[in-house]
Amino acid sequence: MLNGSLSNDLAGAFAKRLTERCGTDPDRIVDEGFREALGRAPKAEERTLALDFIREQPLREYALTLFNLNGFLYVP
Amino acid sequence: MYPDHPAEPHARPTRTRREFIRDGFCGFGGLALASMLHDEQARAGSVNPLSPRPPHMPAKAKAVIFLFMAGGPSHLETFDPKPLLNRLHGKPRPKEFGEARYQFLRPNARLLGTRRTFRKHGESGIEVSDLFPHMAGCIDDIAVIRSCHGDMVVHSAAQYELFTGRVTPGSPSMGSWLLYGLGAESNSLPGYVVMPDPLGALEAGQPMYMNGFLPAVYQPTCFRPGNRPVLNLDLPAGVEAKSRRRTLKLVRELNEAALDPADTEFSARINAYDLAFKMQMDAPEVLSLSSESKETLDLYGVGVEPTNDYARRCLLARKLVEKGVRFICVVSGGGPGNLQWDAHSDIEENHLRKAAETDKPVAGLLKDLKRRGLLDSTLVLWGGEFGRSPEAETSRGRDHHNLGFSMWMAGGGIKGGKVVGATDAIGLRAVENPCHFRDIHTTILNQLGLDQNRLTYPHLGRDERLTFVEGKVIREII
Q: Domain of B442?
């Protein structure tokens, strides 16, 4: 899930989709990523962490992160 | 129960839906990861089922390498010379040797002499055939058991019995039992590794290697053939380790932020990604043969056909032993029968080919372990799920045969240069000191400091053992 080509390719596509939908607005990108991947809005703490992250890291890495969250990987 | 470590209710016998989906998603690289997830989960809990545990009694060996000759190598062409068989070539089996049940042979089958020649080797003077010139050079480190026997004469059931002591799937393999009894010594590698033959799967399939009713933490990790035994250990092109570490940090932070404090399974699993990162750093070095000297590669036969593939895997086995891996199975034979040791149609063609692939790598492994001081603590077991019939099948082949055949052990406190047990004069039946698979299992456990009667696990209302209710230590070779 971290190194495989499938998850990394899909992370790139997911990042592209987020940009197309949300432009460069970081708040919208973070929220839309959570909604698409986890079906819910981020909690305040999660939003802060994610915003800090995308300020310095490529959006593709944020998308890959979402794929690797427990909430995405496991059916509760 | 493991008496010194009363088992907590740590084990579910089945996988949860979550685990199924995770393992499906993570694919093969994820299997290694899965075992680490379990490892991590366990460490966070009150009992870590994989932490190293002291044996019941002083141990001679710490690790086992099983050189599994799948399909059933002939004892009559390798370690059990039978001059009478050659004299009776073409004749029916004399009545005094009794009956045998085969998979294909009819009662009117004729005996088949061997074209191999046997010669005494080493100081011990044990006879080994010219199929194995390299192994013959190590014979003084080897204890040959010429009186092995099992209960089944078809591959799958015999393979289950060889690995698990039962003729049906669903019981734990000896590797899983050892991991259960002793725990793992390495945190960055799996404790039990199977290296299948790249030519294909075997009749008994994966279940023979599996953990059966033992908790899933004791399952093996199956490596892939070729240069990359575990997939996806490398970062994708263009991604820096530093950047990926930052991503992992966010994964951890977000997982923690979403954590339900009551969910111990998730909280235990959160550290897994850090651990996977560690494996990403450590494992490629172990799994690469690039740091091995030319002399060592040549000793095993790496880079030369027909030994290259088996040599690579044997060398990898040594590297894994060095890193504290507990049980390693290196399989020779896979796919259609004649690509295994399953010589139904032509014993000469099949065994000359299979011996050429494996003899030098096996001997190379023994020599390499010995010169590195690892043979004392590593028990090497060689053999298949049965031997082959004294009678001919389709004139030049041999059928399956479970009543008497040869296996050998070396290292791990086993006395070399010994022969134990004997078959009758045509190699039909183990008649002197017969050793069942369960006696092999008991002896392995004993060398690793485990008492077969105390290594139990509750299953369906009974404390089950690897050795069922039988098994004796083969005293002559320890």
A: 50-232+292-477
